[in-house]
Design goal:
Distance between the termini: 49 Å
Strand order of the largest sheet: 2-15-4-12-13-14-3
Structural class: alpha+beta
Order of helices and strands: EHHEEEHEEEEEEEEHEEEEHH
Oligomer: single chain
Number of strands: 16
Number of domains: 3
């Protein structure tokens, strides 16, 4: 959900009116938002399906919305065994509304009776969403979906059907004797400074989808993708910074209290995101009055 933090800036201006420069209020909110993202991993971006060429040992993660905090999940296209035996090849991208492919394949596009004119088991990744009807099958295509020709007909793999790869440590893989010395079908990955290493490395062209956590850069005010209940938490973080600023309204005791609430709130939200309602803190109160 997109949260607008301009209201937090307005609240901050009321709480510290002696801080005359609006840029300082914006800084307090933006810095609190960045701290929130780095600690909770709740600002998520799903990076559009990317090709992985045969022989690739690793993939570098580059978020578009901010600085990388960490990789949360990795999925890989689940290609049928009949395709794997012929070593599938990444051919380019396609338009989900027109079937046009890039780079072009002569005058042919993805449509009725065109599959035989394309490389068998060569696949395309959808770059623009839309709906096409190859071989009389209506397939809504979303960005990241895959289309490939089996030689006679078109086949469609939705990105929701990708297989999630387990994220392991290099120490664990070494204990089980897994290395990157031989190629095959990747079943797990390791993450190190934004680099996803495949185990085993890809023997054929494939495609992966990545969900990562990021921290925004610059001013953080509009269309910030975090849970709605995070706004109050970020307000505490911004107030902790604001009450530390020099001026007649400086109050280090309040700054400490808001910082404590900020850190507690971040941890609670992070737990809830992982465990759902089971991760929500609660208080059980027993009232013994009237009991037999």
């Amino acid at each position: 959900m997109a949260v607008n933090l301009r209201g937090v800036v307005a609240t901050l201006q009321m709480m510290r009116p002696d801080v005359s420069l609006p840029a300082k209020h914006v800084y307090c909110v933006s810095e609190a938002a960045r701290r929130f993202c780095r600690r909770t991993w709740l600002a998520k971006e799903t990076i559009s399906t990317a090709q992985v060429l045969a022989g690739s040992l690793s993939v570098t993660v580059t978020p578009t919305l901010g600085a990388l905090v960490g990789v949360d999940k990795v999925w890989m296209a689940q290609l049928p065994s009949s395709v794997l035996t012929s070593l599938p090849a990444y051919l380019g991208t396609y338009h989900g509304g027109t079937g046009a492919v890039t780079p072009i394949n002569g005058a042919y596009v993805i449509e009725n009776n065109s599959a035989s004119h394309f490389q068998t088991n060569g696949f395309y990744i959808c770059a623009t969403a839309g709906s096409i009807t190859p071989d009389d099958n209506e397939w809504p295509s979303h960005v990241g979906d895959i289309m490939y020709s089996d030689g006679n007909n078109w086949q469609h793999i939705r990105k929701e059907e990708f297989t999630e790869l387990s994220i392991e440590s290099k120490t664990t893989l070494a204990q089980y004797g897994l290395s990157q010395n031989s190629f095959g079908v990747p079943t797990c990955v390791t993450i190190d400074d934004g680099i996803i290493s495949l185990y085993p490395p890809a023997k054929y062209d494939t495609a992966i989808l990545i969900e990562c956590a990021y921290s925004p850069t610059g001013e953080v005010l509009d269309s910030f993708n975090i849970p709605a209940n995070a706004e109050d938490c970020i307000l505490d973080g911004a107030l902790a910074i604001a009450y530390s600023l020099p001026g007649v309204g400086q109050d280090k005791k309040l700054a400490y209290e808001h910082d404590r609430r900020f850190r507690t709130g971040m941890d609670d939200l992070a737990i809830q995101s992982r465990l759902g309602q089971q991760g929500m803190p609660f208080l059980v109160v027993d009232n013994f009055l009237g009991r037999d």
